[in-house]
Design a protein that fits this description.
alpha+beta, 10 strands, Upper collar protein gp10 (connector protein) fold, 2 domains
């Protein structure tokens, strides 16, 4: 990777390419599920009153991926005045509570010195430890990628219902030709029995030995699809997205079915409260009116409406 400053794409691909050595998941499949889970989560948290000059995708990505993003009154290297915009940068220094005190912006278009947090810039963070939640996305993406590969392998394995051995080379060639014709769509394949046992045409014993497999017993497709849905539900529960209870049983009460609502709500609300606490400081410094909330219809808003 080249020397800093790094672009968002470079940061993204550098981090997303990391995969535990003990887990063998296809990289493309893993990235597919990382993008799927990220977009699922990014939609659920709604940011309000974002200025039109701000790139909301840039803001959300750095909140989820890096855990924080600075808001600065940006000045360009050629005298441009960008105004208050979000910019990612490196944190340094520490205050009495061991919180960072300085922000160094990494952007080749912005000419900004080391900024003092709280006086010259503000920080929007998602978690108290200034870390993102990409580890959660990747944790479940790896599981989904592995489950997807098991599903694919099982589909391929279920196509082979039997193995046939031939007693002679002629019989093997005849069998291959017959299989090719059958796979090409012929409904009836006829072969000359003389080609099966050319050394003894009167020998009527079968030249083949068939090893049958119980394909239905080996098929795990439905179970794997259920497991993938369970992993999605585990992710939704952890990040606060309302989800259906897959463990429903007959005669369960409504309170039992919705027993995980509090668990689902807690972590998402923690993130939104952190963002709003930071937004208050940004609003005060730059005269904005930013706010964050969970999408309508979630447990958090329902609870607020009921109080």
């Amino acid at each position: 990777m080249q020397s800093p400053p790094y672009s968002a794409d470079q940061v993204s691909w550098s981090y997303m390419g990391v995969n535990p050595q003990t887990v063998h998941a296809d990289s493309y499949t893993l990235k597919y599920f990382e993008r799927s889970l990220y977009q699922r989560l990014a939609y659920f948290i709604k940011l309000n009153n974002i200025p039109q000059s701000w790139n909301k995708d840039y803001l959300l990505f750095h909140l989820f991926f890096a855990g924080y993003v600075g808001v600065i009154d940006a000045k360009g290297k050629n005298g441009e005045n960008y105004g208050a915009i979000p910019q990612w940068g490196s944190l340094s220094g520490f205050g009495i509570y061991r919180q960072p005190t300085r922000l160094s912006v990494c952007n080749e278009f912005v000419n900004m010195p080391l900024l003092k947090i709280g006086e010259e810039c503000e920080i929007i963070r998602m978690t108290n430890d200034y870390r993102g939640i990409w580890d959660i996305v990747q944790f479940y993406a790896v599981k989904l990628a592995l489950a997807s590969k098991v599903f694919d392998m099982n589909l391929v394995a279920s196509r082979c219902s039997h193995i046939v051995t031939a007693k002679t080379k002629a019989a093997a060639k005849t069998l291959k030709a017959a299989e090719d014709r059958a796979q090409s769509g012929e409904s009836l394949v006829i072969v000359d029995e003389a080609t099966l046992c050319p050394d003894d045409p009167t020998n009527l014993s079968s030249p083949f030995q068939v090893l049958d497999y119980d394909v239905k017993a080996q098929y795990m497709g439905e179970q794997m699809l259920h497991d993938m849905r369970t992993i999605y539900n585990m992710f939704d529960t952890e990040v606060g997205i309302p989800n259906a209870n897959l463990e429903k049983k007959e005669r369960m009460s409504e309170s039992e079915i919705n027993a995980n609502d509090g668990e689902t709500y807690a972590r998402a609300q923690h993130w939104v409260e952190n963002i709003n606490d930071c937004f208050k400081k940004v609003n005060k410094m730059f005269g904005l009116n930013l706010s964050a909330e969970l999408r309508k219809g979630d447990y958090a808003n329902d609870s607020d409406n009921n109080n």
